[in-house]
């Protein structure tokens, strides 16, 4: 039987693909767009990160009724800064059931920086496996200060392990920074990490 032996001095080259990241906000909310731009600005100097939007327009602004432009984007990490309200007819950017997207949801991690996020997003049936960070209850309106440090920690952290585990570690790292030391009153425990098992395979 023929066996293959590694040549002396030969090293296996491990190619690490850049993480594709999309930052999005609703077109009808200048406040959310401003917060999203602050987050997007932190991505420009990070290594092994590819923002999907050009530097001239780093935030994807999404008009009403077109949430799938962002939710259906071919990104590894999707950060959405938006308003969201509970009720039978949700208002704002997240007025879209994820199971009705015209494009498949391919993000491995979805960060919903919204006032109410999880209630509108937890639709595990017919979704691919997904790590979700969102709040199931109302959160203070000025909660956006968590997004930048958390996303930076996620993108510069370990590239192995389950995404829910990586997102949890990123939240812990972000909350330990001096940047967030003055913002403990925002009740960060309300932000939960969910491991969506999913029943649909990714492309």
What's the tally of helices?
Answer: 5
> Which descriptor suits the 3D outline?
globular
The number of E-state strands comes to 7
Computed CA radius of gyration, to the nearest angstrom: 18 Å
Give the mean pLDDT: 80
Largest sheet, in brief, is:
7 strands, mixed
Helix content: 10-25%
What is the CA–CA distance across the termini? 38 Å
H and E string: EHEEHEEHEHHE
Instruction: Decide which structural class fits the backbone.
Output: alpha/beta
Write down the oligomeric state: single chain
- The percentage of residues in β strands lies in 15-25%
Q: Please mark out the parts with pLDDT under 50 across 5 or more consecutive residues, or reply none.
A: none
Give structural notes:
It is a single chain. The chain has about 200 residues and is of the alpha/beta class. About 20% of the residues lie in helices and about 15% in strands. Strands 1, 2, 3, 4, 5, 6 and 7 form a 7-stranded mixed sheet that branches. Strand 5 (about 110-115), helix 3 (about 120) and strand 6 (about 130-135) form a beta-alpha-beta unit. Helix 4 (about 145-155) crosses helix 5. The chain is globular. The mean pLDDT is about 80.
Overview in brief:
The protein has 203 residues and is an alpha/beta fold. The chain has helices at residues 30-41, 68-71, 118-121, 147-156, 163-175, and strands at 19-26, 49-51, 60-62, 77-81, 109-113, 130-134, 192-196. Strand 1 (19-26), helix 1 (30-41) and strand 2 form a beta-alpha-beta unit.
């Amino acid at each position: 039987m023929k066996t293959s032996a590694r040549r002396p001095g030969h090293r296996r080259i491990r190619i690490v693909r850049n993480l594709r990241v999309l930052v999005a906000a609703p077109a009808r909310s200048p406040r959310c767009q401003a917060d999203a731009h602050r987050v997007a600005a932190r991505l420009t100097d990070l290594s092994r990160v590819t923002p999907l939007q050009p530097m001239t327009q780093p935030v994807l602004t999404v008009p009403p009724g077109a949430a799938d432009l962002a939710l259906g984007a071919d990104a590894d990490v999707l950060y959405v800064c938006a308003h969201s309200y509970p009720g039978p007819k949700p208002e704002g950017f997240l007025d879209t059931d994820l199971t009705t997207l015209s494009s498949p949801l391919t993000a491995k991690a979805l960060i919903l920086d919204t006032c109410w996020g999880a209630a509108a997003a937890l639709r595990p049936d017919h979704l691919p496996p997904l790590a979700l960070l969102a709040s199931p209850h109302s959160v203070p309106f000025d909660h956006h200060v968590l997004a930048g440090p958390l996303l930076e920690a996620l993108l510069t952290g370990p590239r192995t392990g389950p995404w829910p585990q990586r997102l949890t570690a990123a939240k812990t790292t972000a909350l330990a920074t001096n940047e967030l030391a003055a913002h403990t009153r925002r009740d960060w425990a309300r932000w939960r990490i969910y491991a969506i098992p999913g029943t649909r395979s990714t492309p």
